[in-house]
Design goal:
Elements: E1 4-15, E2 21-37, H1 40-49, E3 54-60, E4 72-77, E5 80-91, E6 98-105
Length: about 110
């Protein structure tokens, strides 16, 4: 059941007042998905990669906008914005209509 609304964001570098670059994230699109916090052996496996809480996100593939690990996910839960950094993206089936994304809380 795709019952969570998320926003896929893209990083854009802008110049700051000192002439350096600052990362600014812009919304690309919103989509419905399923978000499940990882548990058990998968949780332990992914926490060895990064000391943060991993989530499994299942969503329909957006043919108009390709998602990469350079994007991030904004998810509003109980009036709090959670920012999730994308670790990996896998097409679930051969036809590629579904994506499974592993993302870590920022």
């Amino acid at each position: 059941m795709l019952d969570k609304l998320i926003t896929i964001q893209q990083e854009n570098a802008t110049r700051d007042a000192m002439g350096g670059q600052t990362a600014v994230y812009e919304d690309l699109f919103e989509t419905w998905c399923k978000i499940v916090p990882m548990r058990g052996a998968k949780l332990l496996q992914y926490q060895q990669i990064r000391d943060s809480y991993p989530y499994m996100i299942t969503m329909r593939k957006n043919l108009d906008n390709a998602i990469t690990s350079k994007n991030r996910i904004k998810y509003t839960k109980e009036n709090e914005d959670l920012i999730l950094d994308i670790h990996s993206i896998v097409e679930v089936e051969e036809r590629g209509f579904w994506l499974e994304i592993v993302a870590f809380r920022n």
